[in-house]
Amino acid sequence: MTHLALALEHSHQSDALASFFKAAGDSLRLDVLRALRNDSFGVLELAQIFRMRQSGISHHLKVLANAGLVTTRREGNSIFYRRSLPAGDGLLQPLHRQLLETLDTAPLADALRAGIQQIHAQRADVSREFFARFAAGSPAQQDLIAHFGLYREPLLALIDELDLPRRERVIEVGPGEGGFLPDLAARFDQVLALDNSEAMLDRARQHCAQAGLNTVECLLADALAPLQVPLADCLVCNMVLHHMPAPAEALKRFAALLKPGASLVLTELCSHDQVWVRDSCGDLWLGFDQEDLAHWAADAGLLNGQSVYIGLRNGFQIQLQQFTKPEH
To answer: CATH number, domain at 187?
Structure first.
C-alpha cells in the first residue's frame, strides 16, 4: 500500500472514530439507542417519546446515522429508524458492540418507558379501530393478501415435523374466525385460542361448535400483556404479528408461554412495499425481514429452527419461521 493510500486509510479511520464518539457522547442520543433496542420508530414517534421538536430529533438521528449506529427502513411514505447491529471486523465493531451491551444493562428511565408505551398504545388503537369496523361479519380482509388455504398445508407439514416434548397443549394467538383450530385440535390434546377481539372469538367459538370440537378454549386476552395460562408445547401465530404494535415484545411474550423444548411457529409476510394494506387490511407493518425475526427471537431466548418461503402471484411472499425454546 502506498504512503498516500495509508494516509487516506488512517484519515478515514480517524473520521469514523470521531463520528462514533460524537454520536455516543450525548445522553439523549444514548437514550435513543436504548429506545430502539427492540423496536423501530418514525421521527414523529421519537419526537413524541422525547418531547422534542421534529427538527431536534432529526438532528440527533442524523448524527447517529453518520456514525453507523442507526439504520432506516421505509414503510410506505414513512421512514422508521432502528438500531444498527455490530457487523464485520472493522475498527469500530468492538466499540459498537461494547456500547450496545453497556446500554442494555441499564433499565429504561420511567419517562422513556412511559413514552414508548404511549406509542404502542396508539398503534394498538389504530389496529383495534380498524377491526372494529368488521365486527358485524364482513369478509376477512387478510384474504386480499393471502388466503389461509395458500399456506395451510406447508404450515401443517412444518408442525407435524416438530420434535416437541409432548403434544398436550397448543396456543394459537389471533385465531380469527377459527379456521385453523380444527387442524390443531386433531394434533394436540388441548387448544387455547387467544384474541383481543370478543367479536372474532365469538366467530371462532361458533366454528368450533359446528365442528364438534370440545377440546378448544377461546379466551379474550391481550397477547402483549402477561398472561396466567398453562404453558404450551407449541404456540402458533398466523398473519397476526404485522398487526401488533410491538412485534419484538410480542415474541418475548410468546416465549414466556412455552415449555422448555417447545416451539413457536410464525406465519408472516416478508418485507414488501405495498402500502395499500395499511388502509385495506389494517396492517401496522409492511412485513418483516427474516433477520429481524431471528434477532427478536434470539433476544427472547429462542433458537432458530426451520424456515419455509411461499411466493404469491400478487407479489407478496409468505414466510413460515419456527423457533425453539431451549431445554435448559
So the answer is: 3.40.50.150
Query: Are the beta carbons of 33 and 83 closer than 8 angstroms?
Result: yes
Q: Examine the domain organization and report whether 242 and 179 are in the same domain.
A: yes
CB of 255 closer than 8 Å to CB of 298: no
What does the DSSP assignment read for 304-319?
EEEEEEEE-TTS-EEE
- φ, ψ for residue 205 (rounded to 5)? -65, -40
- Both 148 and 209 in one domain: the answer is yes
pLDDT digits (tens, 9 = 90+) for 49-89: 999 999 999 999 999 999 999 999 887 778 899 998 887 67
Q: What range defines the domain where residue 90 resides?
A: 3-108
The total of structural domains in the chain comes to: 2
Residue 156 and residue 22 in one domain: no
Paired strand residues for 170:
191, 234
CA of 275: how far to CAs of 48, 263, 281, 294, in Å?
24, 32, 10, 24
pLDDT at 285: 92
Residues 260 and 307 in one domain: yes
Take residue 269 and report the three cell numbers written for it.
Answer: 409476510
Per-residue pLDDT reduced to its tens digit, 192-251: 999 988 888 898 999 999 989 999 999 999 888 888 899 999 999 999 999 999 999 999
The DSSP string of 84-141 is: PPP-SSSTTHHHHHHHHHHHHHSPPPHHHHHHHHHHHHHHHHHHHHHHHTTTT-PPPG
CA distance 175 to 190: 15
Please say whether the beta carbons of 72 and 43 come within 8 A.
no
Q: Are residues 79 and 169 in the same domain?
A: no
Where residue 236 falls (left for φ over 0; alpha for ψ -120 to 50; beta otherwise) is: beta
CATH of the domain at 96: 1.10.10.10
